[in-house]
Each structure stands twice: as C-alpha cells, then as structure tokens.
Amino acid sequence: RGNHRIRSINIASRIVSTLAGSSAGFNTVDAAGTDVQFNEPIGIVVSTDGLTAYVADFYNHRIRSIVIATGYVTTFAGDGTAATSDGNGLSAQFNTPNGIAITPD
C-alpha cells in the first residue's frame, strides 16, 4: 500500500518486480508500467481468466485495471471524486475504495 506500486512475484524464480506504479499521485493518461501513478492501492483482485487485475486505488477514488501480461493500466471505474454515486464506468464515484471482488456473473 505505502509504496504506491503493484508488485508481482514469479513463483518459480522468486523474482519480485514492479508491474505498475511509481510514486504517489495520479496521472490521467492510460499507460504501462512505471508511467502510471497510484495513490495507496489497497485492494486487488484478478479476473477469472487470469488476464486482468483490478485495483482499488484508495486516494484516487477509482478502480484501475491492469493487463497482467503488459502492465498496461486504465481507469476502469470512478471519476476521481470522493463520493458514493452509482453510475456506469467513469461516471461512478467512490470514496476511498479499499476492497474489491469479482463475481461469476
């Protein structure tokens, strides 16, 4: 959480690397790897097909998606406003999201 990065571990080699993130903040461009900023990423879940990770970006009030193979990050949901309004994708609002889950449907 405190280093503002999403880290991955290769189980076979035990090598740890940064999948995405750099310093705290938020840049509004979709980008890969360390060109992206999170601000206290706290919750993470992997899609059922194993291709995408979804991250609760706590102080940016957004849900971000990461293509695991490339580290490419996009904003999946939330407009960055600290509020709790329902909506579709980028029009939804979150207030410090800290947990995330995926259901089969």
TrEMBL record:
Pfam families the UniProt entry points to: NHL
Top-level taxon of origin: Eukaryota
UniProt-listed InterPro entries: 6-blade_b-propeller_TolB-like (IPR011042), NHL_repeat (IPR001258)
Annotated keywords: Repeat
Keyword Repeat: yes
Protein name: SMP-30/Gluconolactonase/LRE-like region domain-containing protein
